[in-house]
Structure formats: C-alpha cells, structure tokens
Amino acid sequence: MNERYKALFRKGPTMSVVVGEDGCFLDASDTWLQRFGYTRSEITNYKPQDLASSAAANRIVEDYLPLLRRTGRLYNVPVDIRTKSGKVIECLADAVVEREVDGRYLETVAVYSEVGESDQIEQHYQDLYRDTPAMMHTIDSQARIVHVSDRWLMKLGYQREDVIGRNVTDFMAEDSGLDQNSLIDIIAQGDLDNEPRRYITKTGDVVEVLVSSHADREENGDVKRMYVALKDVTERNIAERKLRTAFQENERLQAELEQERDYLREEVHISMNFGRIIGQSQALKKMLTQLEAVAQTTANVLIQGESGVGKELIAHAIHAQSTRSSGPLVKVNCASIPHELFESEFFGHVKGAFTGAHRDRIGRFQLADGGTLFLDEISEIPLDLQSKLLRVLQESEYEKVGDDKTQSVDVRVVAATNRDLETEVELNEFREDLYYRLSVFPILVPPLRDRDDDVVQLATHFLEKICHDFGQQPLTLSRKQADLLKKYEWPGNVRELNNIVERAVILSKGKVVRLDLAMADILNLAPVTKLSDNTSDEYAVMKESEIIELGKKNMIAALKISNWRVSGPSGAAQLIGLKPSTFADRMKKFGIDRSSV
C-alpha cells in the first residue's frame, strides 16, 4: 500500500481494516482503532477471529473464510469485535480480496459497521440456524452455499470449510438433472415445496430428500438468497420400494397361483375324460353308490384299482359332487416327484432355501386350499417322507422349505393306487398310520373285465369323441366288431380300450371302424377284409403277405401320429399296444425308418 493511499485509508470515516495473506491485521483506519481501543502495533498480532466471541470466531473460521477464499468477497456477514476493555460490539462486515494483475494474492480489505437491534436478531438467528436439528442451507442468487446447518453437514459427512462458497449442485446426484444454470433459473422463480432431490454424501452414498425453500428478495424483486430445508426420506423411500416390490411379487405369485390352478384344473379335466362315467353294469353301479355316499362328506378317500380303470375319473367325480366343487382340484403324480424335491413340490419353498431356489414357489397343498388334492400313485411316496405328509393330514399345518412360519390349509385328500396298501403295510413299505389316515373311505374301482357290456358302451363313447377330435365323419361299430371287444380280457382296462379305439380310427377306411386291424396283434387273429361293399359283416381270410404289409402300414401310421416317437406316453409302441423293444425289433424287420417313408 503506497503512502498516499495509506494516509487516505487511515483518515477515512469508516471502520476499515487490511488483512494479510497470513490472516493477521496489517492496518486499520483511525475510526476502527478509536472504536475498539487498540493501537496499530497491537492489532498486527491478531486475526479477526482472535478479537471475536467464540460463536463469531467459529463462524469466521468455518463459514466466512472458506466463502471468501472461493468467491473473493463477503457481503453483510454478522461478526462481533471484542474491544480492548472487553466489551463486545456486534457488527456487519463487507470484505473483498485484492490481487495482483497476475492473480497473486495482495490483501483483503474489510469494512465494519455497527448493527442495530434487527441486525443483532439476524446474528442470533444465524447461531440458531447452525444448531437446528434440521438439514438446512442458504444459497445466494448464483446457487453458492453461504450458510449450512450442522445437521446438514453431519448427514452428508462434510466439514463446514468443505462446503461454504461451493455451488450446491456439487452435492447433488448426477441423475438429478440440475446444473448451475438450471438451478439459478429455479431460484429466480421462487419458492419450492417438497420437491424430490438426491444428494451425495462424501463417501458416495445417496441421500434422498424432499426440498422446501423460501426466497429472500431485493426491493426490485431479484432473489438475494434462498433458505432451503431438506427432509431426509431415504429410509422411508427404501421401505416404500420394498413394500411396492413385495406387493408386486404378491400380485405375480397370485397370478401365477391362479394360472397354475387353472392349468391343473384343465389338466385333470382333460385326463378324466370331461367327467363322464360310462356304463350300466352292476359292478359300476355298486361303486357309484359308494361314491355318492362319500362325496358330500369331508372324509379322505382311498381309490384302489388296477392301472387304467379310471381312478382319476372317480376322484374328479367325488370333487364335482362335493361341497368343494367351486374350489380347485389339484393333481399330484407322486411317482414323478424326485425324492429331494418332495417337500418343495408338496409344501413349496422360499427363495434361497436351497441351491436353485431363485424365487418363492407355491406348493400343491397351497394350490388346493379350499378344494381337493388328488394324490395319484400314493404308494410311490418314499417311506422316510410319508411322515411329512401324515403331519399335514393330521394337523392341517405345514411349513415351506426354508421358512419357519407355520401355514394352515383346508384341503380334502383323495388318494389313488393300483397296489394293495394293506400288503405294503405288512411288508413295512407303507406307514400304517398314514394308510388309516388316507383310507377313511376306501373305494374299489372294478376292472373292465368285470363290467359286462360296459366295454361296448365305452367303445362307442370313445369312438364318437375320437372321430370328433380327428375331424372325421362318425364311424359305425358293427356287431362282429363289438364281439371282438367282448372276447378280450382288457388287462389295460379303460385306458387300453381308448388306445385301441383310437388306433382303429386311424387304420379304418370307409364307414365301419376296423377294430380287428387294431387288435390283430393282441388277439393273435388274422385281420380280415370285406368281400364286397354291400356286405359289411361278411369277411374272408387274408394272405400272410397281406397281413405283414398291413402290419407295416399300421406301424407307420402310428409313428406318424406320434411324430416318430417310439416309447413313452402316446408313443407309437403304446398306440400299437406293444413293448417299445418289440416295436423297435419289428421296425428293423420291416425296414421302417423315417427316411424311407
């Protein structure tokens, strides 16, 4: 400072000081020295904060100096000065940093003015502002932070000196979509009310807040500063998202439950031949009398009978005539469930219960809640797992795999088996207590060979249905064809009869179904051919070469129907009524392969 300027500075009427790069006073005006009682030589040993009260000193160090370093000036900041006699005088200070042409720091000039009562209130307000339990900050018209509460600093993990003077957008998440210019426009528009924002802590974590603000304006309407309050809603939002996810998962599981329930209903509906029980035999009527007696009760039912007699159809009829008919009928083939998945299949599991459990799964008991659970091939359940089934039958309670929460269920159980369970119990291959729990009301389904003329009535029903399904004109069942049905013992029962009729429809030409073609192998009879179109029941013996050729055509037709699948359900071997190994041998014998047809 040159001498001329120094003299003018010292004689000026304002309370002014000059501060050096080390933060200590370099000089002061006479007015300043007189007001506070110091000499020039004394103040060069002090910094402004050394002469302030402890609260003001903290503000100077933590708020004003960082702001001054970043912006180069201070405007109307509240401070106080302790006089040499110990009196504290509250002031407002303006400060500006002077630099050399090349930008190097030169000095800081500050001007003090004593404050009135309203300014003292403002200063006390600043103290309260810092100590408030709310997240608050004040920004100027350029979105720079000029004040900040301790709570704000604590939440975001910063020191005051890291924050004052910096643009508030420096602390916002990148996905907020705000930069300094857009924020200045928002400030100019005025107040905000619960606007969602995302702030970033010093460690990089996201704090979700709701922002409310109030603008302090100049007389001309320009925004001087904006007071901003933040409400931390991070935990609330996380909880809401989890709850929303849980609701969505529940909706998905409910939809999945309904879809699976509908699917299982349809599966049972189809497999049980649309619920029709065909026949007038005494054996069938006796069984139906038992069915009607038990259907209206809640008793568990054990359906026994040979393979293929229609045990599933009986289970369907029991459900349809029960008070649970509006509920689901869910089928479980116990023979098809792997040992390690038994509990999950029956009771369900929670996500993470075991390797591969990527989501919650609904068990069959839950699917059947309020309805009927049909346990087919009940004898195939491993002995060591039967106790788990017994418990839910006794107590109507179970736990999902991986979950300790007990769930209640209201399910009627209808079980079916083609084995003699009493013998299984004697051999210790089936639990006695489970047997008695299942066989509250046993029903024995008679085999087809004991049902007199039902075989013809059943065959007529299957013939109509299969012709309809194949889109063919209805075929007639002649007397001699019916006699073939009566001569056979039907070890495969109703299922075998259905397969024979289906095979016959495929092989038949004309208006009469040719059961003799479909049954040639199993009856060890030579198929016959008509002598004339006018004599539907007059036949002559075929030559051996014709039989072989007919058998070959029959196998090819079955292969085409089954899409060249030999074994398994609906495979060509099953359609023909042969073992897969026998069928494969005949294919080799006849030279049948896909490329040759």
Structural write-up:
With 597 residues, the chain is of the alpha+beta class. The chain has four domains: 3-116, PAS domain (Beta-Lactamase), CATH 3.30.450.20; 132-232, Beta-Lactamase; 250-446, Rossmann fold (3-Layer(aba) Sandwich), CATH 3.40.50; 450-596, Helicase, Ruva Protein, domain 3. It is 42% helix and 20% strand. The strands form six sheets. It has a five-stranded antiparallel β-sheet with strand order 2-1-5-4-3. A five-stranded antiparallel β-sheet has the order 7-6-10-9-8. Strand 1 (15-19) and strand 2 (25-28) form a beta hairpin. Helix 10 (282-295) packs across helix 11 and helix 17 (454-470) packs across helix 19 (493-507). The longest helix is centred in the middle third of the chain and has 38 residues, at 234-271. The N and C termini lie far apart (112 Å). Mean pLDDT is 83; it is low at 268-275 and 525-540.
For the biggest β-sheet, the strand order reads 2-1-5-4-3
Number of domains: 4
Shape: rod-shaped
Corresponding CATH superfamily of the largest domain: P-loop containing nucleotide triphosphate hydrolases
Percent in strands: 15-25%
CA-CA gap between termini: 112 Å
